[in-house]
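Subject: two folds for Thursday's group meeting

Dear M.,

Sorry for the delay on this. The cluster queue was jammed most of the week, so I only got both jobs back this morning. I'm pasting them in the order they finished. Each block is the input sequence followed by the predicted structure tokens. Could you check whether the formatting survives your parser before we put anything on slides? The first protein is the one we discussed after the seminar.
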Amino acid sequence: MRSLTHKINQFTAKLLDLPQDVAMDLPRITMIGNMQLYIENHRGVLHFSSDSLKLALAKGKLEVDGSDLVIRAILPDEVMIEGKIRDIKYMS
């Protein structure tokens, strides 16, 4: 059933020319160098410290490792962090 829903969402996104992140509830990640990270479509902060950020996603979680991390902006489905970003892991 999940596979069918996934295929229907992909087909609809292509048919309506929608970005797949919107149609399939995927995160959109924009990174500027290793200093700034903007993540859209998250479901909440699970953990935050100056060297680690863990976000809940609709399907999985996102982990960011670095140093001197600071949350510059946070909205219900968007977050911007700054600092020295070393690693980003997407776990489904």
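Second protein, same layout:
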Amino acid sequence: MEELVLLIKYFVLGLVQGITEPIPISSSGHIVIFRELFGIEAKGLSFEIFVNFASLLAVLVIYRKDIVRLVTNGLNFMVKKDMEAKKDFQFIIYLIIATIPVGVVGVLFGDAIGDLIGNNTMVVGITLLITAVALWVIRNLRGRKNDGDLTMKDAVLVGLSQMVALTPGISRSGATIVGSMLVGMKQETALRFSFLLYIPVSLGTGILEIPDIFRDPTMDTLLIPYIIAFITTFIATYFALKWFMNIMARGNLRYFSYYCVVAGILILLFM
């Protein structure tokens, strides 16, 4: 019976991760909350590595055509000097530039940030309220910049906004979408830039944290629950991101702002 309950808990955690990763309400914050509710102690980062990789796979599947186009055109520009491919090459450069801030801060201070506030529900409640304010600010923005209109300054500013999302409760997708729309990107461009930016960050983080998996003493006993969470996360992320694309197209971000206000207040009052 206890084993079944444990499997159900990790199924729910995978579902929470999968649903909240693509939408701007913070997957890390919700995982902290549900772990607290389920009484699951966070030992190491193995679980986060598993479910983040599952979300990454879902994003790769959805954006596979964009990825193939960018890689192909990027190579064509570098090798054949194909000027028609220049905009896609520049888009890749901007993604790399936007990755640098969070990469540097994550490597230098990631462990310290995690130890200080990683499992603090009070911090999650406060940062959800901050997320709500940010989403409210951009709720009516309608930018004009397409993929080919981006600048180095845009990439740096979005990269800095992503850096803020190292704090649990600050949504990574929310932070980058807010940053992208504040610099004038259209909703579709902001969404694409945000999730293509997620790929190198998630992949790099996963590679750096692989040793943690082998050092995790709980892997033998939790392997099956982790696999269940992985599969659940992949499926949930895929459908949640598809749904969020439709939400972005309609410009209904204010509903996520409402949710973050309610969730943040409830956390501060009762946890």
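Two things I noticed about the second structure. The chain has a mean pLDDT of 87. The chain has one domain: 2-270.

Cheers,
T.
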